[in-house]
Write a structure and sequence with these properties.
DUF7586, Beta-lactam/transpept-like, about 20% helix, 2 domains, Beta-lactamase family protein, eight-stranded antiparallel β-barrel, Beta-lactamase, AmpC-like, eight-stranded antiparallel sheet
Length: about 450
């Protein structure tokens, strides 16, 4: 672990201090992650003093960052073969009005479920069981898969699904299968030990009012967890690839792929499986989650290209700059950009004569071998559909991203077939199986 330069640390502290003051936040803890550890943190306000590291062990409420941990457990169940993302909720949780919606739709907020549970404001009143919520057709507000619609209720249902499949409570499963293996021993469902009091700050005066804290019960999987800066930093390292065998690298990658798009924000923001994905104005793609509960706001974002993460924990209902974590990452990237690994040669996964130019009709493409034993097909000298491919069964290749994600590529010395497309070594090669055939007279002026 390489410590930050003093000038970088001062820049991060200045941003954090301004966010605490301008947002009128009673106390704020912020930090950045690099090289698998919390390399810098600071606290402002409350009982914290500059240079005092005790702020790293004070719990704050995470709010909706809890959803990411709930999603991790659901994907563990999928990887064990106990459920499918295309399975209807009714299969595991019969009797709800959302029974025809799929597990995957609930994870990505595409199920059309109501944003909140029925009854009183669940975040400020004692919770109840799923039966006690009294769900009805009114809790189905949109058609399935039609559009992104953020739903706390959906994650409450996923928590109940976890409990029924495992035969234990959601919080017990989360603790045993995610928190304990990751070493997040100071993450709990209720405040434990040193914990911040949540406050509301008066909009027109410099005064505070304590916010209530209750067990959300059936809605706990949507926002119940409390954690320290150290534990939240461990979740950041998880998102950066240190999964501690809780999930496979492939499943983590699946979580980060955008599914539902939130077009209400200036720069595009999307949702994968229990994770928010957004592109910043600087062009970086960040993965993570925000969280809010009465009295608390939290931020967790990582830049997977840079291998860095940023966290923020505040005990206020509103006021914290939601761009603080992204700003800390931008500061870090500008001051101490990642030094990438040196290039080194590696064997080609296919014979060299199969690489190079191919043509889809008259349009030139190029097939390249890229690091990690992958192939890349993209336009040559002009825009074109592009994708990376991983090895598949029987010498085939499977699309990882882009237009051909999930599609099968078959490659021989005469043609490259992909979906219904046939790529040839020369434009409309008459020796290749070009769909529709090739004019016998060939090319002419």
């Amino acid at each position: 672990m390489i410590e930050l330069l003093p000038a970088t640390a001062r820049t991060l502290l200045a941003r954090t201090a301004r966010a605490q003051r301008d947002g009128r936040v009673p106390s704020l803890v912020a930090g950045v992650v690099r090289d698998g550890a919390l390399v810098w943190s600071a606290a402002r306000g409350g009982r914290f003093a500059d240079g005092d590291s005790s702020h790293r062990d004070v719990q704050y409420r995470l709010g909706s960052i809890t959803k990411t941990i709930t999603a991790i457990v659901v994907l563990r169940l999928r990887d064990e073969g106990l459920l499918g993302l295309d399975d209807a909720l009714e299969k595991y949780l019969p009797g709800t009005p959302l029974g025809d919606r799929t597990v995957g739709q609930l994870l990505s907020h595409l199920a059309g479920a109501g944003s909140e549970s029925p009854g009183q404001w669940w975040e400020r009143t004692p919770g109840t069981t799923l039966a006690g919520l009294g769900l009805s057709d009114a809790d189905v507000v949109l058609p399935a898969g039609r559009r992104f619609h953020y739903s706390n209720l959906g994650f409450g249902l996923l928590g109940e699904l976890i409990a029924r499949i495992r035969g234990r409570s959601w919080d017990a499963v989360v603790t045993d299968e995610v928190l304990a293996p990751l070493g997040m021993s100071r993450t709990t469902t209720r405040p434990s030990g040193a914990a911040a009091q949540g406050y509301a700050v008066h909009p027109w005066a410099e005064v505070l009012q304590p916010e209530p804290e209750h067990d959300a019960a059936a809605m706990a999987p949507a926002g119940q967890l409390w954690a320290t800066a150290e534990d939240l930093a461990r979740l950041a390292t998880f998102l950066l690839g240190d999964t501690g065998n809780v999930l496979s690298a492939d499943t983590l990658e699946e979580m980060t792929l955008p599914a539902g798009i939130d077009f209400s924000v200036p720069t595009w923001s999307s949702y994968g499986l229990g994770l928010q994905v957004q592109r910043t104005e600087q062009g970086s793609v960040l993965v993570g989650h925000g969280g809010s509960m009465p009295g608390f706001l939290a931020l967790l974002w990582v830049d997977r290209d840079e291998g860095t993460g940023a966290i923020a924990l505040a005990n206020t209902t509103s006021g914290l700059d939601g761009g603080l974590a992204a700003g800390l990452l931008a500061d870090l990237r500008a001051a101490e950009p990642r030094i990438v690994d040196a290039w080194a040669p590696s064997p080609s996964p296919v014979p060299l004569e199969l690489l190079g130019p191919w043509y889809w009709g008259p349009s030139p493409y190029v097939l390249r071998a890229i690091p990690g034993g992958l192939l890349h097909l993209g336009g040559l000298g002009r825009p074109g559909r592009s994708s990376r491919f991983r090895p598949g069964p029987d010498g085939t290749w499977i699309g990882l991203d882009g237009y051909f994600a999930g599609e099968t590529l078959r490659l021989d010395r005469v043609s490259l077939t992909l979906a219904t497309f046939v790529f040839t070594r020369t434009p409309y090669d008459p020796a290749a199986p070009v769909p529709g055939g090739v004019d016998e007279a060939g090319w002419r002026a």
